[in-house]
């Protein structure tokens, strides 16, 4: 997930697809995945607001 987050910095057109993929997987996942997903989604939202 972090690799994809880093790639979004280079290819910002991927951010919507990454966001949708993460949100689709969130229900019923482990706590570690949720924690990282929240950080990645926060970063994607920051990129969107720029």
Order of helices and strands: HHH
End-to-end separation: 22 Å
Helix/strand/pairing category: mainly alpha
Please give the number of β-strands.
Answer: 0
Determine the fraction of residues in helical runs and give it as a percent range. Answer: over 70%
Mean of residue pLDDT values:
92
What's the number of domains?
A: 1
Radius of gyration over C-alpha positions, nearest whole angstrom: 10 Å
Uncertain stretches of 5 or more adjacent residues:
none
Biggest sheet statistics: none
Count of helical regions: 3
| Large-scale geometry | elongated
How much strand content do the residues show?
A: under 5%
How is the secondary structure organized here?
Elements: H1 2-10, H2 15-25, H3 31-49
Model description:
With 50 residues, this protein is an all-alpha fold. It has one domain (2-49). The protein is built from 3 helices and no strands. It has helices at residues 2-10, 15-25, 31-49. α1 packs parallel to α3 and α2 runs antiparallel to α3 (31-49). The radius of gyration is 10 Å and the shape is elongated. The relative contact order is 0.21. The mean pLDDT is 92.
Summarize it.
The chain is an all-alpha fold and 50 residues long. Helix content is 78%, strand content 0%.
Which terms summarize this structure?
50 residues, mainly alpha, 0% strand, elongated
């Amino acid at each position: 997930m972090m690799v994809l987050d880093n790639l979004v910095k280079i290819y910002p057109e991927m951010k919507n697809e990454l966001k949708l993929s993460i949100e689709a997987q969130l229900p019923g996942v482990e706590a570690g995945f949720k924690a990282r997903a929240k950080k990645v989604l926060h970063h994607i939202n920051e990129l969107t607001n720029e």
